[in-house]
Design goal:
Strand content: 15-25%
CATH superfamily of the largest domain: ATPase, nucleotide binding domain
Structural class: alpha/beta
Order of helices and strands: HEHHEEEEEHEEEHEHEEEEEHHHHEHEHH
CATH topology of the largest domain: Nucleotidyltransferase, domain 5
């Protein structure tokens, strides 16, 4: 008799194989998972009956005799959505429950809109991208600390209209299915752990430097958020004549440069000009201080740097990297994000898929193959992929 735990583990193994391979036969699933052919047949028959898996017909080139039938995840009309709501831009990613891309968009965030207007804009965009599909889960990364129980948002200087609970409550009420919220740095790190620079690492941290500043921690195989969602809010720490965020974020660097009398358009212009030197020097030193703090706090295997400002600051950090060898004998690898701009949207999508599959007792689906395929499937950053008709 198969125990309940064994049954759940076998279901997870079969679904993980189909998620990572897109299509497979019962025989190949048995070989790759180490399960017996009888167990695989029993599990797949149950999953087919539940509508989670579909038989697609014989695989081409399977030779004479009885042909092997291809299996795949069903649910082309069942959608999940990942949203990365940033201070300057918002990325939307819609897939079906097997991770096949249905829509992708990158648009300017309405920074001067009210709370209600921002919520309506976001839900309208999700609804339009989903089209005729049935939306099951939406995961949204927000540029602030998100309380895991109340969904209250704090420390959002670059998008204050999402602070509190009014925004999250309005969005959750307007969208069908389940809506979950998290810090944008957390979902970006989830993307990097799943299919990016932190893939295969048990402990990793990520510093996201764009319009604002965020950090996230993946400790012993799970995201660390804390009681109130405040883990990673290192930007509020005092530094120099302000905070870490005011010294090293894009918006902070621009503000400091203008107060020094320099006419600058954005942080990129500061790096291109190489001035004001004081702003660049302080931002680099602040990044070094933050990396050192994260290093001694969590001893990560890798520190991932993400966001639009990160590559420029990372290049300047190289000259000071020897300082990282001092606090601990095994310094972490410093790596730029390999997912790049879509990291937050991909991570949010992964969080949405996790939520969807938990309802079927699949708590740790391996979505590395799904996320890698997503990255290859995404069009240019301004493009949309229309959802196909059912």
């Amino acid at each position: 008799m198969e125990s309940s735990d064994a049954r759940l583990a076998n279901r997870a193994a079969v679904l993980n194989e189909l998620l990572s391979r897109d299509t497979a036969t019962r025989v190949t699933i048995a070989v790759r998972t180490g399960l017996s052919k009888a167990t695989v047949s029993r599990v797949t028959d149950d999953l087919i009956q539940e509508g989670l898996v579909r038989e697609n017909g014989p695989l081409p080139g399977s030779g004479p005799g009885r042909q092997a039938l291809a299996l795949s995840i069903a649910g082309e009309d069942k959608y999940v959505c990942g949203v990365d709501l940033g201070g300057s831009n918002t990325r939307f990613l819609v897939t079906d429950v097997a991770g096949r891309v249905r829509a992708w968009a990158r648009e300017a965030t309405p920074r001067t809109a009210t709370t209600a207007e921002t919520a309506r804009w976001l839900t309208d965009r999700v609804t339009a991208l989903v089209g005729s599909g049935e939306l099951h889960v939406t995961a949204i990364g927000l540029p602030g600390a998100v309380h895991p129980i109340t969904q209250s948002v704090r420390t959002v200087p670059n998008l204050p209209q999402v602070a509190g609970t009014a925004f999250t409550e309005t969005v959750a009420a307007a969208l069908p299915g389940t809506t979950i919220f998290d810090n944008d740095a957390n979902v970006a790190l989830l993307g990097e752990v799943t299919a990016g620079a932190a893939r295969g690492r048990g402990t990793a941290v990520m510093i996201s430097i764009g319009t604002g500043l965020g950090a996230s921690v993946y400790l012993d195989g799970r995201l660390l958020t804390g009681r109130t969602g405040a883990v990673g809010e290192f930007g509020v720490l005092p530094y120099a004549d302000g905070t870490l965020e005011s010294v090293m974020s894009g918006a902070g660097m621009v503000d400091r440069a203008r107060r020094l009398g320099f006419e600058v358009r954005d942080a990129v212009q500061i790096f291109d000009r190489g001035e004001p030197q004081a702003v660049l020097r302080d931002a680099t030193a602040a990044l070094l201080s933050m990396v050192t703090t994260l290093k001694v706090a969590y001893e990560p295997e890798v520190v991932v740097l993400g966001g639009g400002v990160a590559p420029r600051l990372a290049a300047r950090l190289d000259a000071l990297s020897w300082l990282l060898d001092d606090p601990t004998p095994e310094p972490p690898e410093i790596a730029l994000s390999t997912l790049g701009d879509p990291a937050g949207a991909i991570g949010a999508l992964v969080a949405a898929l996790h939520c969807h599959y938990r309802a079927f007792d699949i708590h740790t689906p391996d979505l590395g193959g799904v996320a890698t395929t997503l990255l290859r499937s995404l069009p240019g950053e301004e493009s949309h992929v229309p959802a196909p008709s059912a």
